[in-house]
Amino acid sequence: MDQVPEDWQTGLVIVAHPGDIEYEASAAVHRWTMQGKRIRYVLASRGEAGIAGLPPGQTGPLREREQIAAAKAVGVQDVEFLSYPDGRIEDGLALRRDLARAIRRHRPEMVVLFNFHDTWAPGRANSADHRAVGRAALDAIADAANEWIFPELSGLPIWTARWAAVTGSVVTHAVDVTDSIKAATESILAHGRYLAALGRVSVPEQARAIIEEATAPIDGFPAERAVGFELFYGRG
């Protein structure tokens, strides 16, 4: 099991909803911000359809605040919401263009994405939003490096990311997050209202279980706690 490359300074995390990052990658993000790397978040939606019984007009601002607090817990200050409709995000040219614009503006060397495959595991279907945003983002990485696909973005210089790392997916590479468990737990706890609405067990119990699953030891990787990624290589 190889180490995720870390000879970079700028990263961009692209996901569909508030909380997606914290369910899988916040410990890795904390490791990287502690190394002095600059990480930014771009979320396609505000998660407004995510809390049963609470209208979207109230849920969206609540989950936006929770995501901003969660980002700060792992050292991320810049969080951007594209305001696509939660639960109805479509993988198409509009989303690809908006994500390519974000990539050109933020100029990341590393782009971190969420599992966009059809399933999480056998018998566990992935959500439509996760599939749409992840696939569009992977395409947008190439779009951002091509001057002709979206000529309306000509005011922003083309940009070629060096890698894309997909979390919650097939594991080809990993990072040691043993020293980032506390920060990652604080990050998921920031989504307290959302977790409480799930109504399974207490919020602290949910947070503990989420972090334990996300940072479980990985066979072949010498770390007590680790986060795994499927790594895609770019150019540069």
Description:
It comes from Nocardia jiangxiensis. This protein has one domain: 3-Layer(aba) Sandwich (Rossmann fold). It has 236 residues and is an alpha/beta fold. The chain starts with a strand and ends with a strand. Helices cover 39% and strands 19% of the residues. The protein is globular and about 50 Å long. Helix 3 runs antiparallel to helix 6. It has an eight-stranded mixed β-sheet with strand order 1-9-10-8-5-2-3-4, with helices on both faces.
Keywords:
single chain; 236 residues; alpha/beta; Rossmann fold; eight-stranded mixed β-sheet; 10 strands; hydrolase activity; PIG-L deacetylase family protein
- How many helices does DSSP assign? 8
Low-confidence stretches: none
Shape: globular
**What is the fold-level CATH name, i.e. the topology?**
Rossmann fold
Strand content: 15-25%
For the biggest β-sheet, the strand order reads 1-9-10-8-5-2-3-4
Q: Give the terminus-to-terminus CA distance.
A: 23 Å
Instruction: Say how many strands there are.
Output: 10
Order of helices and strands: EEHHEHEHEEEHEEHHHE
Q: Please name the fourth-level CATH homologous superfamily.
A: LmbE-like
**Which class best fits the helix and strand makeup?**
alpha/beta
GO molecular function, one term: hydrolase activity
Organism: Nocardia jiangxiensis
EC number: 3.5.1.-
Protein name: PIG-L deacetylase family protein
